[in-house]
Amino acid sequence: MLVIIKEDYDKLSAEAAKIVADRLRKKPNLVLGLATGSTPLGLYKELIRLHQNEGLDFSKVTTFNLDEYVGLAPTHDQSYHYFMKTNFFEHVNLAKRFVHLPDGMTKDVNAFCQWYEERISEFGGIDLQILGIGQNGHIAFNEPGSSLGSRTRIKTLTKNTRQANARFFEQNEEVPKYAITMGVGTIMDAKELLLVANGEGKADAIKGACEGPISAMAPASIIQMHRNAIVVTDKSAGAKLQGSYVDSWENVVFD
User: For 95-107, how does the pLDDT look when each residue is reduced to its tens digit (9 = 90+)?
Assistant: First the structure.
């Protein structure tokens, strides 16, 4: 695992974008796993800048998003379809036929989840998976207690996760109770992981993910078992780490 600690959020976002851009330039038909949430916004903003100002080309890229709320239409302003469209997709030259997100309105969740797994396989697997992390150590919507070998499926959201997301909805009753999410095993199948985190509220989660015991109660801790995992944080999120870290990914070779 490579841990990179940057001075602040803007610098961590720029660092993460450099990693994505490097992988894309080396493989124009990159299969890219995407995450939602506040932390990746800076990363997406920088990728948009690289596309618009430096010609970073997404035309051959295939994307797979980690998750989506069950019961929210793609046009709902709190759906992850809407989030990705407004914050990334409509600003770069992705081909719509190569863009994949879980369908929160599907009538057959199990069949859809199986199709999603098969679709990922059809494209040769995910090359680089972007991840955020929850304060309780969840990745995607794999809440504490999720099987570390799980695949794409429907998950019941914990009370803490629903409370954390309630600020985005007018009433608490509107917060979805379920989500379709890639499983921990699906995430670990990616050839490379890029986890980003910022703020002191994520310090305990990052400590657990990078240096804590590997446990289903802290799903992000499984990234310790991935050969090509990169964690990029700001100083606040990385404040409790005791192990070694660097300030740039360049010229670093995995063991």
Answer: 999 999 999 999 9
For 157-166, how does the pLDDT look when each residue is reduced to its tens digit (9 = 90+)? 888 888 887 8
Whether 136 is catalytic: yes
Catalytic annotation, pick one of 68, 103, 117, 143: 143
Dihedral in degrees, nearest 10, Cα atoms 45, 46, 49, 50: -140
- Judge whether 251 counts as a catalytic residue: no
Q: What are the strands, taking DSSP E only, across the chain?
A: 2-6, 31-34, 62-65, 67-69, 99-100, 128-131, 153-156, 178-181, 192-197, 229-234
Look at the pTM and tell me if it is higher than 0.90.
Answer: yes
On the CB side of 23, CA atoms within 13 Å amount to: 22
Given the residues 65, 81, 103, 136, the one annotated as active site: 136
Mean of the pLDDT values across residues 26-37?
97
User: 2-229 is classed in which CATH architecture?
Assistant: 3-Layer(aba) Sandwich (3.40)
- Active-site pick, 103, 138, 198, 234: 138
Amino acid at 44: Y
